[in-house]
Specification:
Elements (H helix, E strand, L loop, with lengths): L3 H13 L3 H11 L5 H5 L2 H13 L3 H10 L10 H19 L30 H14 L4 H19 L6 H10 L11 E6 L2 E6 L3 H16 L2 H14 L7 H15 L3 H14 L3 H14 L2 H13 L8 H13 L3 H17 L6 H7 L12 H13 L4 H7 L6 H4 L5 E12 L2 E8 L2 E7 L14 E7 L8 E7 L2
Antiparallel strand pairs: 1-2, 3-4, 3-6, 4-5, 6-7
Helix pairs in contact: 1-2, 1-4, 2-4, 4-5, 4-6, 5-6, 6-7, 6-8, 7-8, 8-9, 9-10, 10-11, 10-12, 11-12, 12-13, 13-14, 14-15, 15-16, 16-17, 17-19
Amino acid sequence: MPTLFEFSQQIATFKKEKKFSEALAYFRENKGSFTKEQIGNNEYIVSDMISCLRYSNHLDAGFQFLSIYGIAINEEQKERILSAYGWLLWAKYKAENENNGHSATEDDYFDSDDEETVVEDFDFDKSELLEKVETLIPILNSFNSDFTKTLSSNLFTIVLKSEKKKPAPNWKLVNEFCNKIDRDKLSKECSTIKVERKGQLKDMELASDFENWYAYKTKALTKLGEWQECFDLSKEALEKIENFHYSNDVWFSRRVALSKRNLGNTEDTIQELQAILKKKREWFIQKELAELYFEKGNIESALKQATDAMNNFGPLEFKVDLLYLLGRILKQQEKLELSFQHFSLSKLIRQAEEWKLPQKLFDELRTFTFSEIPQTDFKKLKNELQKYWDSFKAPQTIRNDRPRTFDNSKTGADKNLEGEIIRILHDNERGKVGFIKSKGKEFYFSVNPNFQSISKIAVGTKVLFEIKPATDGKKEQTRIKKVIE
């Protein structure tokens, strides 16, 4: 019969040699030689057993072990045990949420943050697992070791990224989680990882936990309509963060502007959005500026910004609200047929994507005497309006942007192709966009949030897709038809 020290040493040896199954078998064979108190009071046995159970993917058994041997998780507990428990908690949280998207940070590099300003309402069901994370992070932060800092950072990140990757993130949960975390104790250090760019590995610096806290917290506040707090924290972020990542300085500035707008300061909002557009010409920012001009009665400026937004990069199906806005602008100008066509295209896109039709759209369409445009005329209507939007481009821009003729014989346009998703650029409530590789070529794709297999759209997924040829000023488009199981 081994002594308690020999028992502990043998488990540690198995763990060091990565013989986790052998360690678990040895523990079962010899645990009867010792009392629960002897085992529970030995920080080495406890931490090594939790680690072995985690590495063997027996996560629930890890929590059961803690319960059986009366291991308390509090400020008085040994750092070794807290660390082993923290990584077990991290693995469990990741396993519970991994079907909502992989946890790699690369998906957030190009997050356009294209949120709408519509206030959303969320159910809030805090899980027991999340409460455990919220309890542990402040305890870990009381230690001053690099190991516990790394663990605390990973726990903080896994909760926020797991929630954001869900098809419908619970921003109330994100907001409450951020409230539980003391941002001043979060790390301001930025780590670097290798990412592939045009076939070459390059260094990519990641945002610190401190910066991520402000990014997630302020975004949650926009979703919840907490505009004063959003304004205060966005301004604070701009003042306190020394080095911004993922264009966060632009997005914090935008949230300052949106907060001012919703707090009633339209003039300042217009000026700030104009300044943001000089740094980041995103179509949804142009749309917001168009809305502000329209509200002020500056119809010409509203039309310019709205048509610029239509001509800017971005999938047409994401611009249904922009089409609605253009319908209102053109109606104000008494260009009734054009107005009706924009409202109709917004409706037809929603119907094609099987999205809910808002009552405001029905109300606008009822004011016209034109005949309803059927779904079969969708392509014709889109092409006609594309010519109208193109008319607002500068002549040289139209020439330079006009795509070359799409050669069906070389690319297999409109034919089914098989490929593998190699990069995800955007993964948010508006859908996913990225690149598919097939036969040595890369194809840009976008899928809307209602795509039936959107949860399976990830790096490494095999898909069946088709290429739609360029028509009427629109570049060729890639359409994913299904995921290959």
